[in-house]
Design brief:
Layout (H helix, E strand, L loop, with lengths): L1 H15 L3 H13 L1 H23 L3 H6 L1 H24 L11 H20 L2 H10 L10 H29 L1 H4 L2 H24 L3
Helix pairs in contact: 1-8, 2-3, 2-6, 2-8, 2-10, 3-6, 3-7, 3-8, 5-10
Length: 206
């Protein structure tokens, strides 16, 4: 019971700590509406679940043992974040995405989900964190794959609850945040944040 409570406390603190995921969800909520923000949030949290399953199956240990595998994923992830950041700087939005046709709406939801998912999956620090963090809370003799999956699923649920708070709070200011001038500034600021995360990831070590 102590292990479970310790895990819940630690993973909650981790979830509440601002990072790329938080910036991505808030930006989606403000510029694209709460539905697309939820698509982004589901992508981000599904990434956590997939990392947990991978760690349980032993794949995450590869990142810890292989410098080449870690660096490869790190550079791909940094390039992806850089791409997102530069795109927002060069082509910021001047109009919210709420009056589009059904097909473009569907594509937008998929794009938001994919952005959240790959933003998480292409960050090797998440995998290394899970490899070093989750085993501390697995009871002796318990199934490692099962416990890693359950803990990642718990992280996913806590993440969704926190994202609900973020998305709900952002809707209070939604009308002001979706003004063309504000959208443009917000996109460019978010682009700078993404580029900063890209640089941080590229320069990071295990």
């Amino acid at each position: 019971m102590t292990l479970i409570l310790s895990f819940l406390f630690a993973i909650t603190i981790l979830t509440l700590t601002p990072g790329f995921d938080t910036a991505l969800v808030l930006r989606s909520a403000a510029a694209q509406g709460w539905k697309r923000a939820w698509a982004t949030a589901f992508g981000v949290t599904l990434g956590c679940l997939l990392w947990g399953v991978a760690v349980g199956l032993g794949l995450g240990a590869l990142l810890l043992a292989s410098e080449m595998a870690y660096n490869l994923l790190k550079w791909i992830g940094a390039a992806y974040l850089l791409y997102l950041g530069v795109k927002l700087l060069i082509n910021p939005r001047t109009q919210a995405e709420e009056g589009q046709h059904a097909q473009s709406k569907e594509q937008s939801y998929v794009a938001c989900f994919t952005r959240g998912l790959f933003g998480n999956l292409l960050n090797p620090k998440v995998g290394v964190f899970y490899v070093t963090f989750l085993p501390q809370f697995i009871p002796a003799g318990a199934s490692v794959p099962l416990w890693c999956t359950l803990m990642a699923l718990t992280h996913m649920v806590i993440g969704l609850v926190w994202n609900a708070v973020l998305i709900g709070s952002s809707q209070y200011f939604a009308a002001h945040l979706r003004r063309p001038a504000v959208l443009k500034v917000m996109d460019r600021l978010t682009g700078c944040v993404f580029i900063g995360f890209a640089a941080k990831l590229a320069l990071s070590r295990r």
